[in-house]
């Protein structure tokens, strides 16, 4: 059990625990804060995969933007300060059984997957694939079209969100 | 690369421990005389009026949304910017096209008044 | 002689050599060396704040035609020490109903986020915390992490004014992060790497402020707004919202927010000096590393001096003026800047460096001039319409007719 595995185990445990707390927290604000911890755990897992760019992007976009967006939207509701009581569904035993069954099936399939036993090629010690990523993103044989489509998707998201959030009557008030 | 992140992890722990330790030490050195009036919520020296939360404006949410879109856009542009010196001209034009599409979205947001404070 | 040329590097080498000679397994040597380095850097930064507070108070005093602290020690040098001693012994008054975890975590997170910025900044050609290959993006991301501390402070205080102040502050911070990130693309384009050390080394022939003054200006303004300093310190202004998110903090917890703000101002000046003013570059810095450190400190202090000048002389922005400046001036300018510089850089690829720099400089000045003209135009249009006061606009409502006034 070398250091990297210990770090991964810790990060995975923290992420899973925080994710469980997100859905079972009694106050919405606490749930939002547990979400932040989950996202940080995912960032640490990105680091163990030697993908520093995505670890930093995870913190920048998820924690710095999406978590704040979620906190703002939580604050927009009227009942944010209320204690909603134990978050347990009436039929939780049946749901837990189905979830456990699905989990067992997935684990069974994965155990037979040969990806677990093949040794991946180790990245060289100072691999810096950011340059390759940049070139691949805009090369026609690479991901140039998805790159441009991503910007169209972003604009669509922007227009959609603004349409929902801004009342059309606002135009009349200049 | 993992060595770099190990340093950052250690530094983050140190950076968290230092103020925590200092606050703890000051907590030991300082007097503790809790008093119900002292501990009550501050509202310019008078008794609190109304419930303890306020409804925030929708405008905060719209700002956060526009910020999110531009954040993701900038993040997608960073690999392009890193490879900029090695890219042929058409690849640079692709990046500019990416920005232009987002400028269109930005102009839409401007016209719709999403960027006003209110 | 070796020690004089590069004291930090020399000490680091001797120390790691000594640690290795102790006979511990290699992994532990690495961890202990890194731990010591982190401790020294973090402690140095925290102790340096004491000097910064004195420097700023003296300077603000002089700007306001008074002496500043001059009783405690020669030129008042020990004034911040006295203040720190006082604040250590003040009582922590926790408001009733405060969320203990969020309330206590907020000042710790605020200081930790600022300290973490120091881990990737190169102090000289041989001394750098760690040369992370995504250093610049790391700096912006950790700044975003600091914003969470303000939300925790505002919400954990169980005080609606603290909450309002915290949300306003976070709205300001996230708005100004857009031009910050966009203008940070420009030095990355010019240097071809995200690592901060790489950006410094790419400025060997010309500083980036010469090649891209518009980007430097946007980055500087956005940075000052990001640290919540005057003229963007609406949230802290005593006349508004009574000190905002830190109303309910007392004793050293308040002191920690204070320390975080001063250290952040200095760190942001250092980031600007590193990214745009060439960091430790200077005549002879590559051979004599300690000179590089001196150059960096000089440049950082010049930028810090300008920051304090802004604080002492400029009046505060109103929040709608702040948001207008960000969304209607800085963001379009930075978008146009990236596009223009990308195209110009692509067209002048074959020219020697000197002509490329001139081309970039011209594009930047053109854009700045155009922005200036547009701002004057919209200003004259506003005064021509001659409304005595803007009619109160209705708050933006959702389609479910939600929303209330403030």
Automatic annotation (TrEMBL), chain B:
Gene3D superfamilies: NADH:ubiquinone/plastoquinone oxidoreductase, chain 3 (1.20.58.1610). Keywords: Cell membrane, Membrane, NAD, Quinone, Translocase, Transmembrane, Transmembrane helix, Transport, Ubiquinone. One of its GO terms (cellular component) is plasma membrane. Signal peptide: none annotated. The chain crosses the membrane at residues 6-29, 60-83, 89-110. One of its GO terms (molecular function) is NADH dehydrogenase (quinone) (non-electrogenic) activity. The keyword Membrane applies. NDH-1 is composed of 14 different subunits. Subunits NuoA, H, J, K, L, M, N constitute the membrane sector of the complex. Belongs to the complex I subunit 3 family. This is NADH-quinone oxidoreductase subunit A. It comes from Bellilinea caldifistulae. The gene is nuoA.
């Amino acid at each position: 059990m070398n250091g990297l595995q210990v770090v991964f185990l810790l990060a995975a445990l923290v992420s899973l625990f925080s994710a469980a707390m997100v859905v079972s927290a009694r106050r919405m604000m606490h749930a939002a804060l547990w979400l932040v911890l989950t996202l940080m755990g995912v960032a640490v897992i990105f680091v163990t995969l030697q993908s520093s760019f995505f670890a930093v992007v995870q913190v920048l976009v998820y924690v710095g933007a999406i978590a704040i967006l979620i906190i703002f939207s939580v604050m927009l509701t009227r009942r944010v300060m209320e204690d909603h009581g134990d978050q347990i569904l009436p039929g939780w035993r049946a749901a837990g059984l189905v979830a456990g069954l699905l989990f067992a099936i997935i684990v069974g399939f994965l155990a037979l997957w040969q990806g677990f036993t093949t040794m991946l090629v180790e990245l060289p010690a100072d691999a810096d694939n950011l340059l390759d990523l940049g070139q691949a993103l805009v090369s026609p044989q690479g991901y140039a079209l998805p790159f441009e489509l991503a910007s169209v998707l972003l604009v669509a998201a922007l227009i959609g969100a603004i349409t929902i959030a801004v009342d059309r009557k606002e135009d009349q008030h200049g | 690369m993992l060595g770099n992140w190990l340093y950052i992890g250690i530094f983050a722990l140190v950076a968290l421990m230092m103020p925590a330790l200092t606050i703890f030490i000051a907590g030991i050195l300082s007097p503790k005389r809790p008093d119900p009036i002292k501990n009550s919520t501050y509202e310019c020296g008078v008794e609190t009026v109304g419930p303890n939360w306020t409804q925030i404006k929708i405008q905060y949410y719209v700002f956060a949304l526009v910020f999110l879109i531009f954040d993701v856009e900038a993040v997608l542009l960073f690999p392009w910017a890193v490879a900029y010196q090695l890219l042929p001209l058409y690849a640079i034009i692709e990046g500019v096209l990416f920005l232009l599409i987002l400028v269109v979205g930005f102009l839409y947001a401007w016209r719709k008044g999403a960027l006003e404070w209110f | 002689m070796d020690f004089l040329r590069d004291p930090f590097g020399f000490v680091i080498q001797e120390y790691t050599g000594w640690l290795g000679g102790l006979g511990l397994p290699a992994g532990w040597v690495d961890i202990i060396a890194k731990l010591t380095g982190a401790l020294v850097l973090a402690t140095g930064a925290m102790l340096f704040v004491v000097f910064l507070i004195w420097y700023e108070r003296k300077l603000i005093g002089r700007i306001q035609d008074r002496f500043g602290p001059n009783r405690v020690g020669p030129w008042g040098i020990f004034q911040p020490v006295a203040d720190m001693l006082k604040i250590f012994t003040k009582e922590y008054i926790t408001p009733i109903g405060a969320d203990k975890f969020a309330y206590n975590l907020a000042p710790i997170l605020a200081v930790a986020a600022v300290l973490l910025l120091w881990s990737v900044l190169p102090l000289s050609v041989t001394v750098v915390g760690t040369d992370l290959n995504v250093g610049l993006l790391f700096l912006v991301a950790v700044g975003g992490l600091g914003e969470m501390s303000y939300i925790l402070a505002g919400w954990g205080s169980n005080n609606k004014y603290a909450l309002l102040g915290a949300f306003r502050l976070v709205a300001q911070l996230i708005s100004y992060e857009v031009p910050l990130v966009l203008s940070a693309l420009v030095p990355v384009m010019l240097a071809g790497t995200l690592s901060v050390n790489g950006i410094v080394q790419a400025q060997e022939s010309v500083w980036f402020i010469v090649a891209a003054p518009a980007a430097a200006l946007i980055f500087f303004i956005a940075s000052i707004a990001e640290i919540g300093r005057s003229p963007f310190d609406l949230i802290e202004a005593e006349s508004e919202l009574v000190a905002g998110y830190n109303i309910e903090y007392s004793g050293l917890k308040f002191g920690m927010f204070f320390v975080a703000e001063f250290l952040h101002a200095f760190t942001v000046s250092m980031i600007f000096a590193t990214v745009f003013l060439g960091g430790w570059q200077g005549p002879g810095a590559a051979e004599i590393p300690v000179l590089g450190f001196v150059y960096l400190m000089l440049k950082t202090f010049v930028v810090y001096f300008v920051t304090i000048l802004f604080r002492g002389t400029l009046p505060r922005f109103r929040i709608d003026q702040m948001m207008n400046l960000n969304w209607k001036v800085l963001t379009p300018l930075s978008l146009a800047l990236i596009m223009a510089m990308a195209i110009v850089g692509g067209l002048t690829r074959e020219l020697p460096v000197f002509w490329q720099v001139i081309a970039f400089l011209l594009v930047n000045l053109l854009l700045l001039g155009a922005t200036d003209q547009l701002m004057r135009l919209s200003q004259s249009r506003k005064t021509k319409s001659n409304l005595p006061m803007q009619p109160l606009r209705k708050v933006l409502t959702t389609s479910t007719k939600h929303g209330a006034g403030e």
